[in-house]
Specification:
Elements (H helix, E strand, L loop, with lengths): L1 E2 L1 E6 L4 H21 L3 E2 L5 E7 L8 E4 L2 E7 L2 H5 L3 H23 L4 H12 L5 E8 L5 E9 L4 E9 L4 E10 L3 H7 L2 E6 L2 E5 L5 E6 L4
Helix pairs in contact: 1-3, 1-4
Length: 216
Amino acid sequence: MKLKEFSLWGFKLPLEESREFTLFNRSICAHFERHFEAFDTKGVYRVIIKLSEPDERVNTIEESSSVLKFYKAFDFDELSSLDRQAKKERLLNVLYHSLLELCEKLSWPSKPFKQAYDAVYQDKFVNIYEFKKKNSRNRKLIAKLECHHGTESFDCYVKVEDKSGSEILKKLVFSSEPDEFIFNSLLGDLKWVDDETLSILRKNRSEIERVRLDLK
């Protein structure tokens, strides 16, 4: 089994504050995951860093159903005093250094974690990626779904380019909370109906929108 998922969880926070914290930090963890080179572990595919004020379980590990939970002390008041960029940096560092501790405890290689950490900084915490790409039937155009996963929202754009890479169209398809249960249900596929008509589909194959390009 390969390790490939990471989460930060303020598990002692009130429900609404916990959800707000999760939505904010999820883009950082997802960005880290995109650059992380998964490797085989002894049955662990996901790590949850459980953050709280001082707790008797701090620095202990629990494991169940292929999920490893690592308890760490965290100052939420300090976090709230920071600006948005500083919050992102603080949370990435908490994630990274907690994972490095696990590398020592579990004899995991540290290189994949270092590479992912550096890559997030190189991207300046801007988590933008291409989700889907589809050539038109005559192969003169290429359509793409481009995802912008931020701390406040998840925005999906459709882009159409010609063979030279010149942009013909860029349009917002949908915007949602940065909650994967919401946006993953909306991320589906692209289908060229004809050489100038593009259909944008949800995960369940229903149509979100149909775009007609005026190429004359």
